[in-house]
Write a structure and sequence with these properties.
The protein is an alpha+beta fold and about 230 residues long. The chain has helices at about 5-20, 75-85, 100-105, 115-120, 135-140, 140-150, 180-200, 210-220, and strands spanning about 30-35, 40, 60, 65-70, 90-95, 165, 170-175. It has a single domain (about 5-220), classed as Class II aldolase/adducin N-terminal domain (L-fuculose-1-phosphate Aldolase, 3-Layer(aba) Sandwich), CATH 3.40.225.10. It is globular. The two termini are about 30 Å apart.
C-alpha cells in the first residue's frame, strides 16, 4: 500500500477530530503530506468516519491528480494543496465545522487572545479571511479558499498562528504533522468557546498584554523554550 504510514497517520488524525467532538457525520477532513515524494494523503469524500480504513485514504499529487485510491478525494483537497504549496513547514492540515470556531467564522470576527491558554498555542488572534468574490466562488472555489487563506497570512506567520477562520465557512488548522494539525483544531475550538463566553461575561474584555502573550507562547515554542521535558534521541 502506497504511503502506508502516512495513510495511518491521516486516518488517526481524522478519527481524533471525531473523538474530540469537532465533526458531525462526514463533516471535516484531515490530510498529510510526504514532501519527499510530493504526495498528499487525505480523507475520501463523504465516507463515514466509523467506516474509514487506511486503504481508503486517497493519495494525490500536488496538482490534485489521484495517484492511488479508488474513492473520490475530499472536495476540500484543492484548499489543502494550496496550503501545502504556500506554507513550507506544514505537514498536516485539519478542517472542521466545530461549533464555536465556526460561529466566529460566520460572524467574520477574529478570535482575540484574551488569556494565556490561547497564548500557549497561537501567537496572535486567529484571523478571518476576506469574503470570496462572486467570480472566485463560481470558479475554482476550493482552490480560491486556499488562496484567500494564504492571502490572509501575507503579513502573518503561519507557523506561529496555525489556524484561520474562513469567512462564512469554518476553520482550517495545520501543523508539522497530521496529528499536530488535529491537535491544533481541538485547541482552537477550546479557545473559541472560552473567548465567546468571556465576551458574554464582559463585552469589553481586553486582549492579553503583549508581554504576557509573548511569554506564554515563547516558553513553549521559542528558541529558548523551557516548557515540558528535554527530548532525547
Amino acid at each position: 500500500m502506497l504511503l502506508k504510514t502516512l495513510r495511518e497517520e491521516v486516518l488517526e488524525a481524522n478519527l481524533e477530530l471525531v473523538r474530540r467532538g469537532l465533526v458531525l457525520y462526514t463533516f471535516g477532513n484531515a490530510s498529510g503530506i510526504d514532501r519527499g515524494q510530493g504526495l498528499v494523503a487525505i480523507k475520501p469524500s463523504g465516507v463515514p468516519y466509523e467506516k474509514l480504513t487506511p486503504a481508503q485514504i486517497v493519495i494525490s499529487d500536488m496538482t490534485g491528480k489521484i495517484v492511488d485510491g479508488s474513492l473520490r478525494a475530499s472536495s476540500d483537497l484543492p484548499t489543502h494543496l494550496e496550503l501545502y504549496r504556500q506554507f513550507s513547514k506544514v505537514g498536516g492540515v485539519a478542517h472542521t465545522h466545530s461549533e464555536f470556531a465556526t460561529a466566529w467564522a460566520q460572524a467574520e470576527k477574529p478570535i482575540p487572545c484574551l488569556g494565556t491558554t490561547h497564548a500557549d498555542y497561537f501567537h496572535g488572534p486567529i484571523p478571518v479571511t476576506e469574503r470570496l468574490s462572486a467570480s472566485e466562488i463560481a470558479g475554482d472555489y476550493e482552490k480560491e479558499t486556499g488562496v484567500a487563506i494564504c492571502r490572509t497570512f501575507a503579513n502573518l506567520n503561519a507557523d506561529s498562528i496555525p489556524a484561520v477562520l474562513v469567512a462564512g465557512h469554518a476553520p482550517f488548522c495545520w501543523g508539522p504533522t497530521p496529528a499536530e494539525a488535529a491537535h491544533n483544531a481541538v485547541i482552537l475550538e477550546y479557545v473559541a468557546r472560552m473567548a465567546y463566553r468571556s465576551t458574554l461575561i464582559n463585552a469589553e474584555s481586553r486582549a492579553l498584554a503583549r508581554e504576557l502573550h509573548d511569554k506564554h507562547f515563547l516558553r513553549k515554542h521559542g528558541q529558548n523554550a523551557y516548557y515540558g521535558q528535554v527530548k532525547t534521541q
